[in-house]
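Quick one - first record:
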Amino acid sequence: MSDQAVFDQASRDRAVRWWLLAVAALIAIMVLVGGATRLTESGLSITEWKPVTGALPPLSDTQWTQAFEGYKAIPQYRELNAGMSLSEFKSIFWWEWSHRLLGRVIGIAYLLPFLWFLWRGAFSGELKRRLWAIFALGGLQGVVGWWMVASGLSVRVEVSHYRLATHLVLALLIFAAIVWTLRRWADRPSSAVSLRLKATSVVLLVLTFVQLYLGALVAGLRAGRVYNTWPDIDGGFIPSAARLFFDQPWWRNLFDNTLTVQFEHRMTAYALFALAVFHAVDAIRSRADGAVIRGAVWLVAAITLQATLGILTLLNQVPIDLALTHQAVAIAVLTLATVQAERLAARQPAVQPRELVLPLGQPG
């Protein structure tokens, strides 16, 4: 391969990395805007799904009146916000509109560069399949977002917490997939560590997603606004079984009982912290390489900060500034857990060296 070809390949690789990094950053911002939309009760202010024409907000008094009338027709307005003024409606409308606009921006920011890189032949077969899968998940996310909003337009005064949790976890799954792909793009060998270290890194990543799902259920049920004590909850460190499982069938309590869901979220946080500490100590004692140890220690630090913010958010009954900071650090924990799991996973470079094809009959 000529020096010019090597230079061109390096330039393309660098451009792809910056592209994926930018998309990941946009998704992180969108998750935070989505959190603010939820905390300000703004998510049902737009009652129609118009993927193209909905990119424009109301531009005249007539259009604002029409949008407001659409909101007045749903149960949330009638039961919670009756008498709201147009200016108050605009304040919640802009949160939801910004959230949807960011979704459109992410779709364009992903698709157009992706098609250009495909045309330039920048991807290997494996990487191409992975990036198409991420694009498909992004399209699914738009559908899930409307599926979530639709759950609050006819009978409920809020969106389904099941659908809210699905929407959030899918967004963070896409984010983690991009972070993983960024890591795989670099041609570096796997770290030589024990099977136990590799296994705990995977369990940490899975447990992080479980905790994110439970956090979304807590948000959807407004479970953070009750049982605002710590370390006790409902009068003890472990509530009574009669209070945790009063609903029938019993498994519904795991998703619908505010006490049980908050208790699950707390216990999973303790488990995540304990496993992260074990993983870090194991990395140090087994004399893993410096990157593995640093990754484990940073993960413990982020989880510790996240747990502290969670406690403060609970004790203060979910003020928006603490709640959003708690959510932002959750994204940092997910990033570190993804990087650590990828670092210890068996790998093949995403950038495959191009084969030199010689003309038929030419000795090689």
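second record:
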Amino acid sequence: MISLESLRWSELQHAYGQASDIPDLLKQLADVPDSSDDKEPWFTLWSSLAHQGDVYSASFAAVPHVVAALASSPMKADFTYFQFPAWVEICRKKSGVPVPEDIAPSYFEALSQLPALVAAASGREWDATFLSCALSAIAASKGQVVVAEAVQELSPEVAEEFMQWFFER
């Protein structure tokens, strides 16, 4: 993955332009902070790298760092550590944005780690949001982005309505 000290970040783009600010935000993930209530660094990472369903070259460079933070503490990391890489992959496939050639190996390697990290987090408490994001991460890592997106929307209430619709059709 691209070093957080690399000048390459200034060549990458996010929603607001040059991505030279992203390494400082990613460094903050070392402590595996939670993402509740739009806390930083997550608020800025989401708004810069997955802005309204758009993804950018810096989005793909950031995913391996997010997954590395998740891997450092899967029992502590909240749902966003699974949701973010899944969402980047969903948006990449939907929009057809190419992953820069030099970033692709680490990006796809990070995605491939998600199922094992879901398993590593299996001993913790899972609420409905964590469950949907973990399942979405598995689906996205396996190229099933339509399922990954649907699962992110699948609250217990929506699942109940879906099952009712499914058996009535």
